[in-house]
Design a protein that fits this description.
Number of helices: 6
Largest sheet: 3 strands, antiparallel
Strand order of the largest sheet: 3-4-5
Order of helices and strands: HEEHEEHEHHH
Strand content: 5-15%
Oligomer: single chain
């Protein structure tokens, strides 16, 4: 009958649309993994010789408060980590609990759950909501809060990428953040290579894309 034919056509169109949606979803996931894995080319995170400590952009994690220079190195390390978190969240469309504000060595974490004071809102300042990821001239308690906020965001990214959280209770919190970000990058790279058909499939990509995954 006419109704049966119309229903059959509608079912075929629905099946075709579902297949197209599935293919697009897979393409988006592969692209997300490529972009996440390619962060290694801009923000390389490496394991130090002791197998525990991490570096980012060849910068080690110093002890805070030892000297002004080491405070600035730590600020640069945390600034890079903040930038990586912001990009990973963008690629994976993850709504982070705390907003990373990457500003180089003057990066901070923003708590959007705390309402702005009217005076601050009128002058567009957010000192009460922003927690610094640098030590110089700052309250160290607020810096510690910023580290905890950054760590919480990293845990969200681990969950979004299906990477199990490692037991890092005995590890330096700053090094643990880098180790977790490194785990996300490695997992994304593995998924991308698997989706592309293995390491040999990289020959199909543009040279710059291959270099980004190196």
């Amino acid at each position: 009958s006419v109704l049966e034919e119309a229903a059959e056509k509608a079912n075929r169109r629905l099946a075709a649309n579902e297949a197209r949606l599935h293919a697009l979803t897979q393409d988006v996931a592969v692209r997300r993994d490529f972009l996440t894995a390619a962060l290694h080319s801009s923000f390389p995170i490496s394991t130090a010789g002791d197998g525990v400590a991490r570096t980012i952009c060849a910068l080690p994690i110093p002890n805070a408060g030892v000297s002004g220079l080491e405070d600035e190195i730590l600020a640069a390390v945390l600034g890079h980590a903040c930038h990586v978190v912001a990009l990973m969240a963008k690629y994976a469309t993850v709504a982070l609990r705390f907003q990373p504000v990457p500003l180089g060595s003057r990066s901070c974490m923003r708590d959007r759950t705390v309402p702005l004071h009217p005076a601050r809102a009128s002058t567009r300042t957010r000192d009460g909501n922003d927690f610094p990821l640098y030590v110089k001239g700052q309250d160290r308690m607020r810096v510690q809060v910023a580290l905890e906020m950054l760590s919480a965001d990293v845990q969200q990214l681990l969950a979004a990428h299906g990477v199990p959280r490692a037991n890092r209770e005995s590890e330096n919190p700053r090094s643990a953040i880098l180790a977790d970000l490194q785990a996300v990058v490695v997992a994304a790279r593995r998924r991308f290579l698997a989706a592309m058909g293995g390491i040999d499939a990289l020959g199909k990509l543009h040279a710059t894309s291959v270099a980004a995954l190196a």
